[in-house]
Amino acid sequence: MIEHLKKYLQTLKKKTISIDELQSFSANANIPYEQFVDMIQSLEKSHVITMVKAHGRTSRPPFLANTYRIQQAALKEDYFVQLQQLRLELHKQIRLDRYFRLNEKVMQQDLPYLRKIHQYLVNSGLPTYAVPAPERSFELVGDEKWIEETGGAECLKRVELWDKMNIMPVGDPLMFAVNGVRINENHHIHLIVENKTTYQGLLPALKDSRFTTLIYGSGWKVDKGMESFHEQLLVNGVHTFYYFGDLDRTGISIWYKLHQAFDVLPARAFYDKCLQCRPSLGKETQTILDGALASFLSFFPENEHSNIIQMLKTNHYLPQEVLKTRELQMIWRVWSDAIF
Length: 340
Fold this sequence. Notes:
By secondary structure, the protein is of the alpha/beta class.
């Protein structure tokens, strides 16, 4: 039962806990008082919990502390020992470093799958050719849905195997138009737009730009679609990506995910023009990814930061459609020449 108490302490985000809270947990777990006392004294001896002296002790023998400080390092000592043992047991390609910073519950959830991956690696080694995610998922753990639907991708990333498993993305193909004049360039520039209206408006101007492709992002779908971009567009050279989406919390979040994964830059020429327009009220229920706004603002002059922050704070936004077709095309032509 003491292990249950330790696991309970690990779930707490606070640094101290009262004896009443500990006893309440004990009562709910149907632990007799005498056994509860033994558990608390054992945790004290192992320095998992230490007395907060300023709060004194109880009046009832054996005079336990009224409040204890939770010592996370000591609390996780058994867990760290287990991780060290697993390092010796599991295949050397399975890296466990991240679990030392995570809750033990994550490791316990992953462990049955890690043992199956260990066996796969022992028998077959790292895969030498790419296959779709469901096929690789079934090979690894006997469940074709594990990688894409039940946390397998995150598990593989935690143990630094995602990039080594030769997994072929199985998302919708990325939709884009190609500027044939630019195919043989050494430096390819690509523009991703969030909405279909903007894509259709810009498409006639692609041939007049210095961009190799115009990509239709289709909202959040672009994040998965971009994984297969280089398999769809088989050209050599350096690639630079720009993104233009709605100036709202979702649009900025979509850009941020692309920026983190593919180093996609904001298409400033379009955003700057949008910021000259009157924003609309709406999108009150939208949320924004942590770090997205700060990263997005870092690409803009400081005198524009407060305008963007205030717009989002008051639930206003600027859709891509605030720019008309002719305006979009003109901006693209001028900007295209300026960035070379």
